[in-house]
Specification:
By secondary structure, the protein is mainly α. It has one domain. It has helices at about 5-10, 15-20, 35-55, 55-65, 65-85, 90, 95-110, 115-125, 130-135, 140-150, 155-160, 160-165, 170-200. The protein is globular. Its EC number is 3.1.4.14. It holds the Pfam family ACP_PD. This is Acyl carrier protein phosphodiesterase. GO terms for molecular function: [acyl-carrier-protein] phosphodiesterase activity.
């Protein structure tokens, strides 16, 4: 899962939203680095990633890619699933995507001590409206092109967009099957965390 899904699934308190994003930018042990709620959200981010990577529906979706693309299929699929979530946002949220995005953007702009890797990219997230842009499928191609420039074999990831285009319908069905399962998993983990937080 990519940024938008983690934000949607990881709890809606400001500290939870930050932790949901931090999960892609903070590695290693956490003890005491952030607030309790933020660290819990980072742990949830990691659990969501593990659940996603091991799930049969996701493995089936990855198997749709050719062997040469499978190395980078996970990157392409993460971005495509965020596109599906943005495209179908009203099915999964009572808040509009615009309202949700603006809430996160305001939080990023007001937080004085973002982790350095996130601090570098946060202005682009806001000014380019990354979460709203996910609705435009062509932006996935642009995103893959940007990421590919950091890879040793950039052409394999760039060409993955052609496969996403060809696989648009079956991968959309994979998302529709998987995301409710992931929502349930995240809700259960959030409830467990909330119980632990109350006991502290």
């Amino acid at each position: 899962m990519n940024y938008l899904a983690h934000l949607h699934l990881g709890g809606q308190d400001p500290e939870q939203l930050l932790g949901s994003l931090y999960g892609d930018f903070v590695k290693g042990a956490l003890s005491g680095r952030f607030s309790v709620k933020t660290e819990e959200a980072i742990h949830l981010h990691r659990k969501i990633d593990a659940f996603t990577d091991s799930h049969a529906v996701v493995k089936r979706a990855l198997d749709r890619f050719t062997i040469t693309r499978r190395r980078y299929g996970g990157i392409a699929l993460d971005m495509f699933f965020d596109h599906c979530l943005a495209r179908d946002w009203d099915q999964y949220s009572e808040t509009t995507l615009k309202e949700f995005s603006e809430k996160v953007y305001a939080l990023l702009q007001s937080e004085p001590s973002l982790p350095e890797p996130l601090a570098r990219v946060a202005p682009l997230i806001v000014t380019e409206d990354w979460f709203g842009a996910y609705r435009d499928f062509s932006m996935i191609g642009h995103g893959l092109d940007v990421i590919s420039k950091r890879l040793s074999e950039p052409e394999q990831l760039r060409s993955a967009f052609e496969e996403l285009t060809a696989l648009y319908e079956p991968l959309s069905l994979d998302f529709a099957e998987f995301y409710p399962l992931l929502e349930r998993f995240a809700r259960l983990r959030l409830a467990e965390m909330q119980g632990a937080f109350i006991l502290r």
